[in-house]
User: What shape does this take?
Amino acid sequence: MNIRMHAAFPNCSVRCSLAVFATALALMPVPGSVAWAGEPPKLVLQITVDALRGDLPSRFSNVLGEGGFRYLMDDGIHYTNAHYQHANTETIVGHVSLATGAVPAAHGMVANVWFDRELDRLVYNIEDSGYHLLTAGADVDKKTEIDPTQKAAGVDGRSPNNILTSTLSDEMAIHFAGRSKIFAVSVKDRGAVSLAGHAGKAFWFSKATGEFVTSNYYYDHYPDWVNAWNARNPASSYAGSSWELLHPSSEYLFGDADYRDYETNLAGFGRVFPHAYGEADDKYFTTKLTVSPAGDELTLDFAKNLLDEEQLGQDDVPDYLAISFSSNDYVGHLFGASSLEIEDNLARLDRTLANLFAYVDEKVGLANTLIVLSADHGLPEAPGYLNALGIDKAHYFDTKSLDRTPAIAALKKQFGIGEELIESYFHPYIYLNRELIRAKGLDQAAVEAAVAAEIRQFRGVADAVSSSALRTASLPDTLLMRSILRNFHPKRSGDIYLVFEPDVFINDFDGLIVASTHGSPWGYDTFVPIMFAGAGLSAVKVNRPVTPYDIAATLAAFLNVKPPSGASDVLLVEVLGERMD
Ligand SMILES: [Zn+2]
Assistant: This one.
């Protein structure tokens, strides 16, 4: 199979059992001996930029200033060839992989949404009926929510309880006897809950109230400073204003290509600059803040306040602050990876990062702070952009009609099924009507195999892999199969894993038509930057193939704490330097 994927994969084309590989996954060893050398940092600052494809900072370096990305790229350790190795490159999957250093088969967060067979409904990754939000009215407003995964949540409670392995932040809590202060902040709840782990505290932005909120998993009541920050209502300062270009349009790669008809025009936000936020009573006002640099600016403001009020990095016990900047992802969905909007958002994020680093330098000192920046997944191009360049094969795929296609209709006839055989599709899984299959006395594995075989023939489908086949390891040992197996969890994975060909996407989310969608095993979605800086690290660019799973174990080794329970055993030697044996 000729696919572009992570270079570290062995190019095995022979048909062989995956059982050995599955065993290797389960028995991942812990890192080798690491000698202690040097003072530990006072603060670990883990930054995630949602959907930051690995090439974007250098591609748009023309609009970057000083002290942000340039500080990381020029003064830090920049891994330029980092790829995820799991198939479903979605937000929770990547964030938890960063937090735990594990693949989804181990940490269990296989998708943003999966079907819970006990509850008999789709569930959102971090929903938890055992808890509630601390703020009344802060739950997802299903009438205005544009994030289709958030809409799947059946309850307002959020917790990390679905994360099955430990996070680096958990290991810090355990090692330092609870004396490490551990916090995570993001516009997205899943961007914060993932990295705070089971022992830390998470805050995220509620589009319903325009505030940063949390759940009673973390607190019984808000710290005073959070109430004070929310009472100040910083989001309201954007009312009546617009997202405007930071630089003259001539300085941008896409300066003369602002308008594209495939871009999403969200409730008057428009396809060209300036993008108006609307007034504070506009029902999409807070949503518009999140699909622009404003979301990251609010996150920065809240995180700086947190750093101060919680006095992070002020004693000898290392503290942990994770910040996940979400705007890049939303802007990518609405406008695509090659747009003036994504370019300006990066320019403004760069300014946000420079502001953050200057603040941390003043309060803690960059020499005392170990910074790591990466992304939860990459970012695909919009098919319309590719089509205009003559790449005709790029297109959108309609999954709504799956059950009604002639091939599936014929199969239903063959099995004597008059009702819906395909119960639902929620990326990346197809769910079959198991009750019906049982009632008809049919064999689940045989039906899965038959449906997968038909769907595999569809235009735009690269493969359809049944979970029964994954369980019995009767699959060819290809790069694609390995990435799907790394994403497989027996209790959470659906019945058939659907993989589209490169540059084929779903774009209709409950009626919201977007320009691009990530979540594939292809290079544009697996490719992310990894940058370390501060804490006395020396500048170096590394093009050796590495993975984002290596980050957690490397941070653990740097702190001389044990690695998270499912973490990769690969250490990034450039970061550890003389800390290595
Ligand atoms: Zn994401």
About this structure: Residues 340-363 form the longest helix (24 residues). The radius of gyration is 23 Å. The pocket of zinc ion is lined by residues 50-51, 91, 329, 376-377 (CB under 6 Å). The chain is about 30% helix and 15% strand.
